[in-house]
């Protein structure tokens, strides 16, 4: 399905109150249109995406917003509004679309990290034979940076949707997501899977998405309004570039390669059973063996979680989320002190159903499933208990599922 401009009245959407006025004041012109791209939360499926397994994400109602104006010259001008805990050192950046390989600003300085996502998406389009139009873009976001809610994928998908809209490309949404993944992998330098860009693109309000990362088959699963998604931000941060992400990915690939010597049909850990893994325990180094144990069991948990949602068994889904967190902590070693403290603090509340680390792990946010009627009390309980244990005050979000990326007219709000 191509990206199309949407009727704002149909969706009752409002951009950040000062986005358009700030664009006018900064650039002395009015934006042509506005883009809204959601963050995402993964209910279950830790590190299964790049192992060609299954994931269960949902787009969420925390957004990256772009105000966009087309330019007749091959330049991209970006202006990033400070939001929350993010204060960019260089809020305005200009770069040439004809010199993307240099990763330099128009003045010859290295692109700041936040601007490489725009340059990377432009580079990815050009590598695929699609010309990227010059544009002036103001960015505002309430997706926490580095918290495991896919702020990078949200902004990549937003840029892609903006340029697709300007040029009128009838681009398939899965191709759009894949080109954004290519930008993150090959330009920004993060070897991520496709889950994040997929969720930001295909999100469906009132649903979570069961996604097969090998075949790209997917199905929306209704998320009942008797359940609430509570995200607890510990305030700790990591980036995939400087975390242990690449090491964990290499360990998974190492385990798969060893087993492949005896089972040629194995392409990735998705194809390995716990029984087959155990047969070769003596040949696989301990860390790689533990990572593989987690991935194989986690794939089973994702499919079991989907069955639980279909069967109307939220307690089962919550238990699977807890099992996921324990496995991520003990076998994959991708948790952290703050995440574990938050998980422990959540225990004992009657509305709590389960919880796990969001995103790649190590730092950032925990995601909890709770009964909607007791969700507000659970959030208070969680905040108080975490503060008592760590003397830190977390930020707690009660989130809703959301639609994927959309383009809106800039006037008529």
Descriptive overview:
This protein has helices at residues 8-11, 19-27, 113-127, 151-167, 173-188, 195-202, 245-260, 274-279, 286-311, 314-330, 337-346, 375-390; strands at residues 33-44, 54-70, 75-80, 92-96, 135-141, 207-212, 218-222, 227-233, 352-357, 365-371, 395-399, 406-409. It is α+β, with helices and mostly antiparallel strands and 413 residues long. It has two domains: 8-222 and 402-409, Ribosomal Protein S5, domain 2, CATH 3.30.230.10; 227-399, Alpha-Beta Plaits, CATH 3.30.70. The protein is globular, with a radius of gyration of 21 Å.
Keywords:
alpha+beta; Ribosomal Protein S5, domain 2; Alpha-Beta Plaits; eight-stranded mixed sheet; four-stranded antiparallel sheet; 21% strand; globular
CATH class of the largest domain: Alpha Beta
C-alpha-based Rg, rounded: 21 Å
Unreliable stretches: 1-12
Q: How far apart, in Å, are the first and last alpha carbons?
A: 26 Å
Instruction: Based on the coordinates given, report the CATH architecture of the largest domain.
Output: 2-Layer Sandwich
Query: What is the total number of structural domains?
Result: 2
The percent of residues in helical segments reads: 25-40%
Structural class by secondary-structure content:
alpha+beta
Strand content: 15-25%
> What name does the CATH topology of the largest domain carry?
Ribosomal Protein S5, domain 2
Q: What is the helix tally?
A: 12
Overall average residue pLDDT: 92
Q: How many strands?
A: 12
Order of helices and strands: HHEEEEHEHHHEEEHHHHHEEHEE
- Specify the biggest β-sheet: 8 strands, mixed
């Amino acid at each position: 399905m191509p990206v199309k401009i949407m009727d704002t009245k149909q969706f009752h959407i409002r951009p950040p109150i000062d986005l358009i006025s700030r664009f006018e004041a900064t650039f002395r012109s009015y934006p042509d249109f506005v883009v809204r791209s959601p963050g995402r939360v993964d209910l279950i499926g830790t590190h299964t995406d790049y192992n060609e397994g299954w994931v269960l994400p949902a787009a969420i109602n925390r957004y990256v917003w772009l105000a966009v104006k087309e330019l007749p010259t091959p330049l991209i001008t970006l202006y990033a509004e400070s939001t929350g805990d993010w204060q960019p050192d260089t809020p305005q950046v200009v770069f040439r679309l004809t010199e993307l390989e240099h990763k330099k600003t128009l003045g010859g300085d290295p692109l700041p990290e936040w601007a490489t996502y725009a340059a990377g998406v432009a580079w990815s389009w050009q590598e695929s034979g699609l010309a990227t139009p010059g544009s002036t873009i103001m960015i505002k976001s309430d997706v926490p940076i580095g918290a495991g809610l896919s702020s990078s994928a949200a902004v990549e998908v937003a840029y892609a949707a903006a340029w697709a809209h300007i040029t009128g490309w009838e681009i398939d949404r899965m191709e759009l997501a894949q080109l954004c993944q290519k930008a993150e992998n090959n330009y920004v330098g993060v070897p991520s899977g496709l889950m994040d860009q997929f969720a930001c693109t295909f999100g469906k309000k009132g649903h979570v998405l069961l996604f097969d990362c090998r075949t790209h088959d997917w199905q929306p699963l209704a998320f009942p309004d008797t359940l609430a998604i509570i995200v607890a931000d510990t305030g700790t941060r990591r980036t995939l570039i400087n975390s242990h992400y690449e090491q964990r990915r290499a360990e998974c690939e190492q385990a798969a390669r060893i087993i492949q010597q005896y089972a040629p049909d194995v392409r990735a850990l998705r194809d390995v059973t716990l029984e087959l893994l155990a047969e070769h325990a003596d040949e696989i180094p301990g860390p790689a063996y533990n990572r593989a144990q987690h991935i194989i069991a986690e794939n089973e948990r994702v499919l079991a979680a989907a069955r639980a949602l279909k069967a109307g068994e939220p307690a089962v889904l919550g238990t699977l989320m807890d099992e996921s967190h324990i496995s991520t902590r003990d076998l994959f070693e991708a948790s952290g002190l703050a995440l574990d403290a938050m998980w422990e603090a959540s225990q004992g509340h009657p509305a709590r159903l389960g919880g796990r680390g969001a995103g790649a792990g190590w730092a950032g946010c925990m995601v909890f499933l709770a009964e909607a009627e007791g969700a507000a009390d659970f959030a208070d309980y969680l905040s108080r208990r975490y503060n008592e244990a760590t003397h830190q005050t977390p930020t707690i979000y009660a989130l809703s599922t959301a639609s994927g990326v959309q383009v809106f007219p800039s006037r008529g709000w």
